[in-house]
Amino acid sequence: MDIAREGLERQRAKRKRVARMKKLIIYTIVTFMILTICIMTFLCVEVVSLQRQINEISSRIATTEEVDNPEQMSDEGYLDDVYKVDNAENEAKEGDIPMVYLTFDDGPSENTDKILDILDDYNVKATFFVVGQDTEKYGDAYRRIVEDGHTIGMHSYSHKYADLYSSKESFEADYNKIHDLILDTTGVDTKYYRFPGGSSNIVGKCSMSVFINTLNEKGAVYYDWNVVSGDATSRAFTADELVDNVMTDVVKYKTSVVLFHDASNKDATVEALPRIIEKLNEAGAMILPITDDTTVIQSVNVVQ
Ligand code: ZN
Fold first, then answer.
1. Ligand 1 center from residue 161 Cα (angstroms)
2. Distance from the CA of 29 to the center of ligand 1, in angstroms?
3. How far is the CA of 275 from the centre of ligand 1 (A)?
4. CA distance 195 to 193
5. How many C-beta atoms lie closer than 10 Å to residue 152's C-beta?
6. What is the pLDDT of residues 114-131, one digit of tens each?
7. Cα separation of 225 and 155, whole Å?
């Protein structure tokens, strides 16, 4: 009897041990799973917040560079990766006469008169996308652009990306300022606009479609470019290289809108300009100012 009870007791104790072991194993597994889920959730949250911080920092860097170093600011710099013009329809074919539009951004400057003299020497008309300057100092330059028969367009008043692209209101206020400055100084009610950084820049907080719509509301049309001279890149090209840059690309298109800069530190542009005009003439190109008939070259299509 005792032996039977002892056996029974032993079995019961064994079952208890097994049950305890099972419980322990289940607890361990559950704890491990909960821990894993916690760690994974924590890591996911960290990754998302880090990504957000990286985005903020990189947009801040881009904006600060622009505001702090307007002279070194490169319209093209922002566009190296994002700028795409659909040139499929615009490819030059055998026998096409290249239509070339020379455009000068960021003026007027101390170089404006030199550029205008060269254009005058060759009897060539171009397009100037101007910014807001002191009219006491540069009033004559704005007027001479118009009197010499060139097209004058807007390139924002402030050219400060951080302010300009901060909201629809700030963009519109800046538009009105540069539009009225040109109207009051030259009498021209211009509708041509070039976005600082181009229409596909990624610096602003708002989508560019907000600003494109603002231009639509005002009946303005914006022009990007499909040929870069290279006079605003971080690398300082020589005049010879600027000539090569322009001539290499101009032959590819029916319509070429060439980006130059009219700024006081752009001496290579002034030096290269006569040779570029001569080479374009030799190539049988037509050099024209932007008008309502010009093929619109835009990197982003109008978003309604
Ligand atoms: Zn510019």
1. 10
2. 63
3. 23
4. 6
5. 22
6. 999 999 999 999 999 999
7. 13
pLDDT, tens digit, 9 for 90 and up, residues 182-201: 999 999 999 999 999 999 88
The one-letter amino acid at 82 = V
Q: Are strands 99-105 and 286-287 parallel, antiparallel or unpaired?
A: parallel
Closest CA to 176 of 146, 156, 201: 156
The CATH code that applies to domain 70-302 is 3.20.20.370
Give the Å distance between the CA of 15 and the centre of ligand 1: 83
Amino acid occupying residue 152: I
End-to-end CA distance of the chain: 96
Residue 128 one-letter amino acid: F
Residues with CB under 5 A from ligand 1 (ion): 75, 105-106, 196
| Sequence spans of domains, the chain | 70-302
pTM of the entire predicted model = 0.73
156 Cα to the center of ligand 1, angstroms:
9
